[in-house]
Amino acid sequence: MSSEDLLSVDYEVFGRVQGVFFRKFTQAEGKKLGLVGWVRNTEEGTVEGQLQGPRSKVTEMQDWLRNTGSPQSKIIKAEFKNEKIIQSLEHSTFKVVRP
Fold first, then answer.
1. Which residues have a Cβ under 8 Å from the Cβ of 95 and sit 6 or more positions away?
2. What pTM was estimated for this model as a whole?
3. Residue 3 region, left (φ>0) first, then alpha (ψ -120 to 50), else beta?
4. Which residues contact 33 (CB under 8 A, 6 or more apart)?
5. 40 and 48 in contact (C-beta within 8 Å)?
6. How many CA atoms lie within 13 A of 50 on its CB side?
7. CB 7 within 8 A of CB 86
8. 80 CB contacts (<8 Å, ≥6 apart)?
9. C-alpha to C-alpha distance for 87 and 13, rounded to whole angstroms
């Protein structure tokens, strides 16, 4: 295992991010990067969730959430908060949470 810090960060993505497979693509990208966490739609029309994993991979995913998203999405902005170093992962996989 790398000596790289494990990071946890909450996120919310604004724009045209519902009804465009954003959650599915977010889950796939998170898994591809080896991250764990979750993603869900909000009643406000945004997508929110949590990422956990090595700092460099979390940074990559933050860039993906800011600039890439799903093919039909139109991202206005992505906000990140509650960033902290963690001792161990709190999730076992990256999942889509449904209401």
1. 27, 37, 38, 39
2. 0.94
3. alpha
4. 53, 57, 60, 61
5. yes
6. 15
7. yes
8. 9, 10, 11, 62
9. 26
Helix (H, G, I), strand (E, B), or coil: what is residue 38? strand
Strands (E), the chain: 6-16, 36-41, 47-54, 74-86, 94-96
Distance CA 48, CA 22 (A): 11
Mean pLDDT per 10-residue section of the chain, whose length is 99 residues = 84 98 98 98 98 98 98 98 97 93
Region for 69 from its dihedrals, namely left if φ exceeds 0, alpha if ψ lies in -120 to 50, beta otherwise: left
- Whole-angstrom CA distances from 32 to 36, 42, 43, 77 are 10, 24, 28, 23
Residues annotated as catalytic (active site), given as ranges: 23, 41
